């Protein structure tokens, strides 16, 4: 969603889950729920649309099943066809796990992993969770939390609200221009977005990898991994050229990675430094970066 000034109001995921496409499930983040509901209701009223916007968080819960074995586990839990052919990426469908009715969404948007979101009645959460653990045990299923999710989304190049995306950013400076369809007749923020599409910006959002700058024998320690908000400077200079928004250790690359706002005149592969990690250098990528 965009503001009238073309700034990012926040990402939303919209799914229809009935045959008539008259009901849609709109997913936002918990901290933005009330604000987004208000914004949708106000927009509907201003445009005099015959729609209802209802909050279902009080009775609808979600459990995410993520990872390379998630399809196999889900296929053992339900009689529904969840194969690649029967339930491809971005599919939404009603399935049953035992006696539990579920709206199942297949999406790897944030993690880059094969994953399923299982939306269900909150009263069934404990039962559903236990059934998933029981069936998934032979496949090595484990719980994962926010830190693990943060690693996966950084490796996948996924930007989140409050870190990379704020009311001070627009889609064209943070690599989300593909999500803006200027061919549509009208939408909130279109006029501003059209102007932005013709502009050059003095900063870009980059995904960075960290390597030992001078001594490859240095052992990387947890305290050396940025946490966010660290200032970035050109190697050997005091000039400030950017700031980290979020970072973590990449298990796949075996090195720290981070999102950062970087001056547009910084070139890909140019090495720069982080003030609190003087022995680290950063290799910057200005284009969509996905780790296979």
TrEMBL record:
One of its GO terms (cellular component) is mitochondrion. Substrate binds at residue 117. InterPro entries: GcvT/YgfZ/DmdA, GcvT/YgfZ_C, GcvT_C, GCVT_N, TrmE/GcvT-like. Residues 1-184 form the GCVT N-terminal domain. Signal peptide: none annotated. Residues 221-267 form the Aminomethyltransferase C-terminal domain. SUPFAM superfamilies: Aminomethyltransferase beta-barrel domain, Folate-binding domain. Gene3D superfamilies: Probable tRNA modification gtpase trme, domain 1. Belongs to the GcvT family. PANTHER family: AMINOMETHYLTRANSFERASE, AMINOMETHYLTRANSFERASE, MITOCHONDRIAL. This is Aminomethyltransferase folate-binding domain-containing protein. It comes from Cylicostephanus goldi (Nematode worm). The lineage of its organism: Eukaryota, Metazoa, Ecdysozoa, Nematoda, Chromadorea.
